[in-house]
UniProtKB/TrEMBL annotation:
Highest taxon above the source species: Archaea
Pathway terms, separated by semicolons: Cofactor biosynthesis; coenzyme A biosynthesis
Source organism of the structure: Methanotorris igneus (strain DSM 5666 / JCM 11834 / Kol 5)
Lineage: Archaea, Methanobacteriati, Methanobacteriota, Methanomada group, Methanococci
Any one GO biological process: coenzyme A biosynthetic process
Name recorded for this polypeptide: Pantoate kinase
Keywords: ATP-binding, Coenzyme A biosynthesis, Kinase, Nucleotide-binding, Transferase
SUPFAM superfamilies: Ribosomal protein S5 domain 2-like (SSF54211)
InterPro entries: GHMP_kinase_N_dom, PoK, Ribosomal_Su5_D2-typ_SF
Reaction equation(s) it catalyzes: (R)-pantoate + ATP = (R)-4-phosphopantoate + ADP + H(+)
PANTHER family given in the database record: PANTOATE KINASE, PANTOATE KINASE-RELATED
Keyword Hydrolase: no
Length: 278
């Protein structure tokens, strides 16, 4: 199962005793790169790019199904963990889908039921582990996704992108950032939430990629989440549709048209070229 990476530009945090009501509002885009997950008979081990690790959201999904003992989960990811590209969410959602395929060999569930249950299980795993709030819902929806309400029932707007093939998303990963250190910190929550309310309204009024990028950079700067280094890179990339810091990572991302791609690649040191994935 392939689950696309997801870049959040801006978001607001909602915590609730009910994990299904916990989540985030905000906006982001999914990419044609992400994480492929398979499951095979084994000992309950988790592998990430062939390295055995105990990845908490994946473990959470396996435990939900009491799946620990007899299968291994293999994640093959285009991006490292901790880069603000929804990799943990992709691992959780891919695991949930693959487990469903195995446990329901008699097709008791119809595909739509699969989908809904897999998304809920993966979302709960992310929220419980502190590794995400809205990625799974965005990765399930795919494309340019505005999340209007947190958690479930899912309430999102999938924005139609005309001439989607004209756009490139270029990312550069400059380091790691643990999501849980931000979304569980009261000071950060306060900064994030007082900034993001107006942004959602502004984007819904003018749902363009340009406006998304402008609002994302405003969010990254106003909350203080953006690093000085990434802020400088974003200034160098102002000729593009827009550039900002992927939330929550130490990663810069920009959206550009094909005619500007070579100039972007000349500025970034280790660029990864992606497309928007719907
Ligand atoms: N080597 C590792 N072993 C176990 N867990 C890891 C390892 N490297 C990263 N992780 C975990 O992966 C998760 C990454 O989630 P997150 O910070 O949300 O990053 P992302 O933006 O990739 O989703 C964190 O819980 C982190 O502790
Ligand atoms: C921004 C974030 C809270 C974390 O995203 P990541 O670092 O990619 O796990 C995301 O889950 C969201 O709610 O939009």
């Amino acid at each position: 199962m392939f689950v696309p990476a997801h870049i959040t530009g801006f978001f607001k945090i909602f915590k609730d005793r009910d994990f299904l009501k916990t989540g985030s509002t905000g906006a982001g885009i999914t990419l044609d790169k992400g994480v492929h997950t398979t499951i095979k008979p084994g000992n309950g081990d988790i592998y990430f790019n062939n390295k055995k690790i105990d990845l908490s959201p994946t473990r959470e999904v396996m435990d939900y199904f009491n799946f620990g003992g007899s299968y291994d989960v293999m994640h093959f990811s285009d991006f490292p963990l901790g880069s603000g590209l929804g990799t943990s969410g992709g691992c959780a959602l891919g695991t949930a889908h693959e487990v469903f395929k195995i446990i329901d060999t008699y097709k008791i569930y119809d595909d739509n039921n699969y989908n809904n249950e897999a998304v809920k299980i993966a979302h709960i795993a992310e929220v419980k582990c502190g590794t995400g709030l809205g990625d799974v819902i965005a990765q399930h929806t795919k494309g340019f996704v505005i999340r209007k309400k947190p958690g479930f029932p899912i309430n999102v707007e999938k924005v139609k992108i005309n001439n989607i093939d004209d756009y490139y998303v270029v990312v550069e990963i400059l380091g790691k950032k643990e999501t849980k250190n931000i979304i569980n910190n009261p000071q950060w929550i306060e900064k994030i939430n007082k900034t993001s309310d107006e942004l959602l309204i502004k984007l819904l009024k003018n749902p363009t990629l340009k406006n998304f990028m402008d609002l994302s950079l405003y969010f990254a700067k106003t909350t203080g989440l953006i690093s000085d280094n990434i802020l400088e890179i974003c200034k160098d990339l102002k000729f593009t549709i827009g550039a900002s810091q992927a939330m929550l990572g130490n990663t810069v991302f920009c959206i550009c048209k094909k005619e500007d791609l070579d100039d972007v690649l000349s500025i970034l040191k280790n660029p990864i070229v992606c497309k928007i994935y719907e």
